[in-house]
Amino acid sequence: MLQDKITQYTAEINAFTTQNADELEQFRIKFLGTKGIIKDIFDEFKAVSPEEKRTLGKVLNEFKQLAEAKYQTLKDGSTEAESSKDSDTDLTLPGEGFEIGARHPLALVRREMVEIFSKLGFIVAEGPEIEDDWHNFSALNFPEEHPARDMQDTFFIKKGGETGDIALRTHTSSVQVRMMEAGKPPFRAIMPGRVYRNEAISARAHCFFHQVEGLYVDENVSFADLKQTLFYFVQELYGAGTQVRFRPSYFPFTEPSAEMDISCTICKGAGCGMCKHSGWVEILGCGMVDPNVLENCGIDSKKYSGFAFGMGIERIANLKYEIKDLRLFSENDARFLKQYKTSLI
Ligand code: DAH
Q1: Which of 19, 82, 234, 317 is deepest in the core (most CB within 10 A)?
Q2: What residue ranges do the domains of the chain occupy?
Q3: pLDDT of residue 343
Q4: CA nearest ligand 1 atom 12, residue
Q5: Ligand 1 centroid – CA 230 distance (Å)
Q6: Could you report the per-residue pLDDT of 123-171, keeping only the tens digit for each?
Q7: Would the CB of 154 count as within 6 Å of ligand 1?
Q8: 285 CB less than 6 Å from ligand 1?
Q9: What share of the chain is helix, strand, coil (3-state, %, to 5)?
Q10: Could you say which residues of the chain have pLDDT below 50?
Q11: DSSP readout, 284-313?
Q12: In this structure, which residue's CA is closest to atom 6 in ligand 1?
C-alpha cells in the first residue's frame, strides 16, 4: 500500500519540471510542506509492521531525498532564469570598456625633450619650487637692484630673515646652482620644472609655467658646443632642416648671452601669424656660464667653463601643437586633453 504510493509519487517527482517560481512553490508545499505528502507518508509509516519497516525505511528516506533534491535543483535553475529574465541586459552585447586617459601635452613635450638630451648624455636633475634668494638670484649674479627681484615679478613667501628672502622660484636656473654646489664638474644635466611669476593670467601670460634648464660644465667647453647641442636638439624635436639663429642678449648669469630663434615651425619661414610674418620664432635663452656664477658655486672658473640654456615648455608645446592660449594647459578641460592620446604609456 505505502510502497505503491511511493512508487506513484516517485514517478510524479521524476516527471516534474518547471521554470516558474509559483509552480515550484506549489511543488514544495505538496511534497515537502508541513502538511505535505512526505509528512503523511512518514505518519503512515509509523503504523506498519516491524518487518515492513525494515524494507520500507530505506525506500522512504530515498524518496524524501529525491523530493528535496528535485526542489533544490529547480530552485537554483529558476533563480538564474528569473534573474536573467528580469534584467533587460543583452548578455551578448560588447562591454562598455574603459576610456584610456591621455598624457598632458606638457608631459609629452617634457618627455621628448628629456629623451633627446639623454642621447647627448644629459641627465635629469630637479630642485625645490620654494627657493631662497641665494639660489634664485644672488648666486646667479643678479645685481641687488635687478628688476626680476621686484615684487611685481616674484611671489615672495617671506621677506628678510636669516636665509634672506624666500620665494617661489621664478626660473629653473636655481637648480643649476644647487647642482654645482652639491657636486664636482663635469656637469651635464637638464632640469625641468614649474616656475612662478607674479603676472596677470591671460592667453599669453600665466602665474605659473614650466621650464627646462640645461647646464654643461667641463674643461674647455665652448660656445661652439652650445650651438651644436642646441642645433641637434632642434633637429630632433622639430625635424631635420629646421634653421637656427642666435641673437646677442643679456642675462646676469651668462656671458656672452644669446637668444635662439628657429625657423617658424608652422610656415617653415614663409611668414605667418605664429611668427608675426618674420619667419622666425624665439625659443630659448642661453650663454656661457658667467665665471662669477661658477665661483659662487665653488667651481674654479680658470679650469672650468660651461654653457647654460633655459626654455619654456609651454612655448615648445605651443609651436608643436599650435596651442595658442596658455590657460588651456592648466584648466584641465577633458575635451582639450583628450586630443593628445598617445600610444606611449
Ligand atoms: N632663466 C631664464 C629665464 O627664466 C632663462 C635662461 C636664459 C636660462 C639663459 C639660462 C640661460 O640658463 O643661459 O628667462
Answers
A1: 317
A2: 2-86, 105-340
A3: 58
A4: 309
A5: 14
A6: 999 999 999 999 999 999 998 888 878 777 899 999 887 778 999 999 9
A7: no
A8: yes
A9: 45, 20, 35
A10: none
A11: EEEEEEPHHHHHHTT--TTT-EEEEEEEEH
A12: 310
